[in-house]
């Protein structure tokens, strides 16, 4: 798919620009996803944000689309420093088929983001992905419960609302 980077560039980091065009093309022909995933680390923050947004939107409809990129996502976790990319990485990783070791690594990094990134949106999606990982892993659940309680007590209103939904999902008391 020629010109993906050009299609995703221009405008601001809070706009999606022509991302929907790219999403529609990728839903029909997912071979272009490799280029999109590489753009998560693009020097242009608009391109990086939109590429991660595109991958996340494709994954919502085709969760299996994440599988070929799981190793790269995990390898690059520490390199994803842009908050808008951090919004989307947790939403991608919940669709990946992770081994126990991979799940633990993803959980640790995403929890760190959720607890330390100044973006409340990073926290919102990070806590949700961590909850999804903890739901299928008792070790993570035991680590997660005190951390989600702390976030509920000290977090912003949006984080507290997410904590309440997570508590219901995991059937735990806050």
Word description of this protein:
The chain is mainly α. The protein folds into two domains: 1-97; 99-174. The chain contains ten helices and no strands. The longest helix has 17 residues, at 45-61. It is globular. The termini are far apart. The model has no long low-confidence stretch (mean pLDDT 95).
Quick summary of this structure?
The protein is mostly helical and 174 residues long.
What key attributes describe this structure?
mainly alpha
The average pLDDT value, as a whole number, equals: 95
Range of helix content: 55-70%
Which consecutive residue ranges, at least 5 long each, have pLDDT under 50? none
**What gross morphology would you assign?**
globular
Assembly state here?
Answer: single chain
Secondary structure layout:
Blueprint: H1 4-8, H2 19-28, H3 33-38, H4 45-61, H5 70-75, H6 83-93, H7 100-116, H8 120-135, H9 138-154, H10 157-170
Helix pairs in contact: 2-4, 4-6, 6-8, 7-8, 8-9, 8-10, 9-10
